[in-house]
Write a structure and sequence with these properties.
The complex is a heterodimer of chains A (about 170) and B (about 450). In chain A, about 65% of the residues lie in helices and about 0% in strands. The radius of gyration of chain A is 17 Å and the shape is globular. Classes of the chains: A mainly alpha (about 170), B alpha+beta (about 450).
Chain lengths: ~170, ~450
């Protein structure tokens, strides 16, 4: 398939939704998610011969995309404040989530409001079910930092969720 | 894990998959074509290669020039020795017959050491009975060995050891008067000699008269210094008329090399986009092709940073969607570091003074490093701001600017030059790039 553009497109189109759904959880907006997705697919096309055809494709793709998201996070790690809401605190987000934006009522939107480090730790622990030791190694932090980040992420999510509910907003 | 987080996990897992977007595939397709990734990797990794090649090339050229100069110098020494001994009348090196601004000529500068050695030899010969006429202490010499009747008469002042000299700045014209007797014009001797030896050169002849040095003031062991002192502050009528100045294409070919460093300030203008003015550093190398034409190649490190309040690809700001309708676009900004290369031809007006104006025209290529385009959104319902960052890949644009230079050089010495240059970069490729006005000062070294 390497170099066969039609086949590449078919594969991309087939797994676009699945892949973007994963990437959206690791980024704060769709633009960043698309960058991660496309960079991930570049890896997929370059390493396709390593794929064990006796296995299913989706878990393999998901692993690659998660690693791509981690790389993306590392590359942006030194630029705090540029890609996220400035000075984000739960108390400031009283207006969130908006009530009239398309798709904004998704729980995904709340996850996307988390600061990058909290969001990444949360996803790796809750969604990918990594241990704190593994997360620490991947993000080059200590296991205790991973635990505290997860705890803080949960706290913010719960806070956001309750405030939204108090305003009568239901999530999809 | 408590129920709340299980619910979040379930919600996220069961979230509907986003619909396929054609533009996302197009973006990936471009990356697969290598238009983005290849450029990024090559220019990001090897941006220093052109500068290194430039420096290596210039050093190699310099080495060749130096080797050739050494060879020429040796040859000149050999030629001088042979001429001094064998020929009845000799014109050393490039004499006034060949130049119009003698002491500024490169050839004279290059042969200075040899001439000085010849002068010493001439002094020795003078002490042993020969007549000498020094046109300069450092530049050239005419010698006679009493074999040409007319010329010798002019120099033969009833003394066996005659020497005459004039200082360098006075070497313009000359004739001889002695004891109320008009000596044969030196012109005749010079014409006969020069035309034979340099048939392709113009003899400028003798235009005025110079008084002879009183014989009583000349000792037998004459040295150059007293002669120079004697003629110091004495005005002599210029004898060498200015001949035609060499044209830009006369003797066309590589003749020298110059390396310049500059710092300056770039002022940018665009009708819509608010570009920031920024400092620039530049390394420039040029090859001298003739007395007034140079080919130049330079590399400038600067930035093309901007702010724009319109989200439009035409202005380098591709539209993005805010995460919700609550956010309103304010402006986009980017700090674009760029390495600009330009090459072209420069004409320098040779004035005969230390100040030389120049103008130049060339083409520019720009290597833009990867940068982040930052979109600023304001929350219309609250105090929050949102910044969305979009990574823009490195790119290389060839012939994106036409470059016009004008300025002035000042010769600090034979090798060092200071310069003040104004440049205008006229945008001819990308509409959202600005026109650039640049002012630079710097130093150069001529090899």
């Amino acid at each position: 398939m390497k170099g066969n553009r039609k086949s590449q497109r078919r594969l991309y189109e087939r797994y676009y939704g699945f892949g973007l759904k994963v990437c959206l959880r690791y980024s704060s907006n769709r633009q960043d998610a698309t960058v991660i997705l496309n960079d991930g697919f570049l890896r997929v096309f370059n390493k396709l011969e390593q794929f064990d055809t006796s296995q299913t494709f989706e878990p393999w793709l998901r692993r690659i995309l998660v690693h791509q998201a981690i790389d993306h996070f590392r590359s942006r790690k030194n630029k705090p404040g540029l890609i996220e809401l400035k000075q984000l605190t739960a108390s400031k987000l009283t207006h969130l989530p908006p009530q009239d934006g398309p798709g904004d009522h998704s729980i995904l939107f709340l996850v996307q409001q988390l600061p990058p480090m909290y969001r990444t730790v949360f996803n790796l622990y809750v969604m990918e079910e990594y241990k704190h030791d593994e997360i620490a190694e991947k993000l080059n932090i200590s296991a205790s930092t991973s635990r505290s980040n997860l705890s803080r992420a949960k706290e913010i999510l719960r806070d956001l969720h309750q405030k939204s509910k108090s305003r009568g907003i239901k999530f999809n | 894990m408590d129920e709340f987080y299980n619910n979040i996990k379930d919600d996220l897992n069961n979230m509907p998959e986003p619909a396929f977007q054609e533009e996302d595939w197009n973006s990936l397709s471009k990356q697969l074509d290598g238009t983005t990734t290849t450029k990024k990797s090559i220019w990001k990794r090897f941006w220093w290669a052109p500068i290194l090649l430039l420096l290596l090339g210039s050093q190699t050229y310099l080495l060749c020039l130096w080797t050739q100069a050494q060879h020429d110098l040796e040859q000149i020494k050999i030629d001088n020795q042979a001429v001094t001994i064998d020929a009845p009348i000799h014109i050393f090196q490039d004499t006034i017959l060949l130049t119009n601004t003698i002491y500024k000529y490169d050839t004279i500068y290059l042969t200075g050491n040899t001439v000085r050695q010849s002068l010493k030899a001439a002094q020795n010969q003078a002490n042993s009975g020969g007549n000498r006429l020094f046109f300069s202490s450092k530049i050239k010499q005419l010698s006679s060995q009493n074999t040409r009747a007319g010329y010798s008469q002019a120099l033969d002042l009833s003394h066996q050891n005659n020497s005459f000299g004039i200082t360098r700045n006075e070497i313009l014209s000359l004739d001889f008067i002695h004891s109320n007797q008009q000596a044969p014009l030196l012109t005749e001797a010079l014409n006969k000699t020069s035309n034979a030896e340099y048939p392709d050169k113009e003899s400028i002849g003798v235009q005025a008269y110079m008084p002879l040095l009183p014989l009583t003031n000349i000792s037998k062991s004459v040295s150059i210094d007293p002669l120079e002192r004697y003629f110091h502050n004495r005005s002599l009528a210029p004898i060498v008329r200015k001949t035609k100045r060499p044209g830009p294409f006369d003797e066309f070919g590589p003749q020298g090399f110059m390396l310049e460093g500059s710092i300056g300030y770039n002022i940018k203008h665009h009708d819509v986009i608010n570009y920031k003015n920024e400092f620039v550093t530049q390394l420039k190398t040029s090859v001298k092709l003739s007395s007034s034409l140079d080919f130049w190649l330079d590399a400038s490190l600067t930035g093309l940073s901007y702010e724009v309040d319109q989200m439009d690809s035409e202005f380098g700001v591709p539209p993005v969607s805010p995460p919700s309708a609550n956010f309103e676009f304010v402006l986009a900004e980017a700090n674009r570091p760029v390495l600009m290369y330009s090459a072209g031809i420069q004409y320098t007006h040779v004035t005969g003074t230390r100040l030389r104006p120049f103008i130049g025209i060339g083409l520019n290529a720009t290597n833009t490093f990867a940068y982040d385009l930052i979109y600023e959104f304001n929350d219309i319902t609250g105090p929050d701001e949102l910044n969305i960052e979009r990574a823009i890949s490195a790119e290389f644009n060839f012939a994106d600017y036409a470059v016009f230079n004008a300025g002035i050089k000042y010769a600090l010495s034979d090798q060092w030059r200071a310069h003040l240059r104004g440049s205008y970069y006229h945008n001819i490729l990308k509409e959202f790039n600005p026109s650039i006005y640049s002012v630079q000062v710097g130093l150069g070294y001529s090899f």
